[in-house]
Write a structure and sequence with these properties.
Radius of gyration: 20 Å
Distance between the termini: 60 Å
Pfam families: Lactamase_B
CATH superfamily of the largest domain: Ribonuclease Z/Hydroxyacylglutathione hydrolase-like
InterPro entries: Metallo-B-lactamas, RibonucZ/Hydroxyglut_hydro, Sec-metab_biosynth-thioest
Strand order of the largest sheet: 1-2-3-4-5-6
CATH topology of the largest domain: Metallo-beta-lactamase, Chain A
Bound molecules: zinc ion
Order of helices and strands: EEEHEHHEHHHEEEEEHEHHHEE
Strand content: 15-25%
Number of helices: 10
CATH architecture of the largest domain: 4-Layer Sandwich
Helix content: 25-40%
Largest sheet: 6 strands, mixed
Organism: Neobacillus ginsengisoli
Protein name: Glyoxylase-like metal-dependent hydrolase (Beta-lactamase superfamily II)
Number of domains: 2
Shape: globular
Length: 316
C-alpha cells in the first residue's frame, strides 16, 4: 500500500489552487509540481518538509500533463536535484520546440483568432519563446506500466484537455491520478491547440475529450485524485454530468444561431459576456469545440466572410 498526500499549491489562475501529490511507499514519487516561479517552489518545498521529505528524497516526478500550473515547477526542482521526469510522449515536441516551432504556433493562434472574428492584437495570450531545459526526461505512452511507491500504475492516454493528458491507474486498488482530465470542482476546457507536428490541421479537442471520457467510463476507477480540488469516487456520474453540460452548451449555440449566422466571437460574447481581453481565448476554445461537435452531427454549415468563418444552422 502507498500513502497519498495531497499538496495544495496556490496559483494566479481562476481555479485558485492546483494539486500536486506526494506518493510515499517503497519509493517516493511527486505527481505534478505546481506553477513556475520561486513563490510556488518555496510553497512546495515547505509542504514537502512538513511531511519530512526533501527534494533529494524524491525518486521520480510524473506529470499528468504539461500545462504550466502542473509542470511549471520542474526547472527550479531540477536546479536542486537531478530527479527523473516522466511525461506523455506528446510533450516531446513542446519540450524540444525551436524558435521556429514557437513562431509557427503563434501564427496558428493569430489565424484562429481572426477566423473566430476576434482581434488577435487584443485577445491573444502573449507569450515569449523560452527554451525548456529539462533533464532526465522519459516519455510515457498508453498502456505503459510505471511503479509508484512499489505499486504498478497503468498509463491511460486521455487527450482532450491537452494533448499530453494521462491518467495513472492502479488496477489493484483503483486509485487514479487524473490531472485535469476529470475535476469535480469545475468543467475543464478542451483547449484548441496548433496542429501536431507533421500534420496540417488542428486537433478537435472536444471530440478527443469525449472519446477519452468514454474510454475511462469503461474502467473500474475507484478513488480519483484530480489536479484541482477534492478527490472523488463517483467518476461515472461526473462523466454523465459533463456530457449533459456539453449538450446544454450545444443547445445554447443552436439557439443563438437560430437568429442568423454568427462568428465564434459573436457567439462567445453572447454566451460569456464577462470574458474580456486575453480570457476571450477560453471562451473561443470552448465554443469552437462545441461547434466541431455540432458539425459532426451535420447541424451546421459555415462560409467565409473575409477572414472570418460564419456559422449557420444547416436547415436555414
Ligand atoms: Zn491543465
Amino acid at each position: 500500500m502507498v500513502e497519498i498526500v495531497p499538496i495544495e499549491l496556490e496559483t494566479h489562475f481562476a481555479e485558485g489552487t492546483v494539486n500536486a501529490f506526494l506518493v510515499i511507499g517503497e519509493t517516493i514519487t511527486l505527481i505534478d509540481t505546481g506553477n513556475p516561479g520561486k513563490e510556488s517552489f518555496q510553497q512546495l518545498k515547505t509542504k514537502l518538509h512538513k511531511n519530512n521529505i526533501d527534494f533529494k528524497d524524491i525518486d521520480q516526478i510524473i506529470l499528468t500533463h504539461i500545462h504550466i500550473d502542473h509542470a511549471g515547477g520542474v526547472p527550479l526542482i531540477q536546479n536542486e536535484v537531478d530527479v527523473p521526469i516522466y511525461v506523455h510522449e506528446m510533450a516531446r515536441c513542446t519540450l524540444n520546440a525551436s524558435f521556429g516551432d514557437f513562431e509557427r504556433d503563434m501564427s496558428f493562434f493569430r489565424q484562429f483568432m481572426e477566423q473566430c472574428g476576434a482581434d488577435p492584437l487584443n485577445h491573444i495570450v502573449k507569450r515569449s519563446f523560452k527554451e525548456e531545459k529539462w533533464r532526465n526526461v522519459s516519455y510515457l505512452k498508453e498502456g505503459d506500466m510505471i511503479q509508484i511507491g512499489g505499486q504498478n500504475f497503468e498509463v491511460v492516454y486521455v487527450p482532450g484537455h491537452s494533448q499530453t493528458d494521462i491518467l495513472l491507474w492502479d488496477k489493484e486498488t483503483g486509485d487514479t491520478f487524473a490531472g485535469d482530465h476529470l475535476v469535480k470542482a469545475f468543467s475543464v476546457n478542451a483547449f484548441i491547440e496548433p496542429p501536431i507536428p507533421g500534420t496540417i490541421t488542428r486537433t478537435m479537442p472536444l471530440l478527443q475529450y469525449r472519446r477519452s471520457l468514454s474510454k475511462i467510463s469503461r474502467l473500474p476507477l475507484k478513488r480519483v485524485y484530480p489536479g484541482h480540488g477534492e478527490s472523488f469516487s463517483d467518476h461515472l456520474s461526473l462523466i454523465q454530468q459533463r456530457l449533459l453540460e456539453q449538450e446544454n452548451r450545444c443547445e445554447q449555440i443552436v439557439n443563438i444561431l437560430s437568429r442568423g449566422a454568427k462568428s465564434v466571437f459573436e457567439i462567445c460574447t453572447e454566451m460569456y459576456p464577462r470574458l474580456k481581453d486575453r480570457m476571450i481565448f477560453l471562451g473561443l476554445s470552448q465554443i469552437q469545440g462545441h461547434i466541431d461537435l455540432l458539425e459532426t452531427r451535420n447541424l451546421l454549415a459555415s462560409e467565409k466572410r473575409g477572414s472570418i468563418l460564419m456559422y449557420r444552422l444547416m436547415n436555414e
